[in-house]
Write a structure and sequence with these properties.
The chain is α+β, with helices and mostly antiparallel strands. 32% of the residues lie in helices and 18% in strands.
Amino acid sequence: MSGDTLVGRTVAGYLLKRYVGEGGTATVYRAEHPELGMAAVKILRSRLSQDPVAIKRFLREAEYGARVSHPNIVRAYDYGQAEGLHYLALEWAEGEPLAEFVNRSGPLAPSLVAKIVEQIGAALTSAHHAGIIHRDLKPANIMYNPAEQSAKLLDFGIARDSDSNPEERLTRAGFFVGTLQYVAPETLSGELVKEQADVYSLATITYYLLTGCLPFTGKSPRELFQQLLTQAPVPLNDARKGLRFPTAVEAVVMRGLERELSKRCKTVDEFAGAFCAAVREEAPKRSGFFAGLFRKSGE
């Protein structure tokens, strides 16, 4: 299905007005609904329309999205099948993927990172309270509006119910789901993970927003896989030449990246709260914030 094939058609009451983009499983359109207004509509790719696992994973994003309501989570309006198409209608979130914003802007000011982490942390905490583990946290799955400095979490396509039975899994044991650069080490075994896996991913995002780098330097999936399982992440203050952060800020980020669960922050709320406190406690001490850079404490 090419990007503009469905433009102009109405699916389940949503007039598809503009092609936005596509991923491995769905094509996304900006649409208009007579009652809901603007919406983002995902259409499952035709090659997957007969794949029951792909369909269930596609619709699960809506099912989980409907279970949790939070201002920093993109709302699911409607989903199902119409005119032979599997569709998912979502709130239209203004802005752009956080990955694109950071790619254009470079490392972000710690104060701005704290605002983003606070919002996504609150969204994840709400999801966790509803029994949902996201499992695919990454900047590409966060919509960011620079004008309002607001962030919204999306894409619960590979999320899972924390109370689900192993027999109900859509992924075979021994295989992991997620994006390798952002997954927690325990995910690589393919076993069921808990909310501390989302803590690790959020800490990785935080590291990336602050530095423009990732905690592991592997250039291939095999190399990254080995590093995640056997090596310690690069310390935050060694990530990028010329970028230095206060000891408290580095300590929180690295605690979120601990391989051992007993040493890692237990909840997203704990990690986000500690990180924001470390950044904000430092801010009044320093009038020399420039382009988001911290000078090392004592310098």
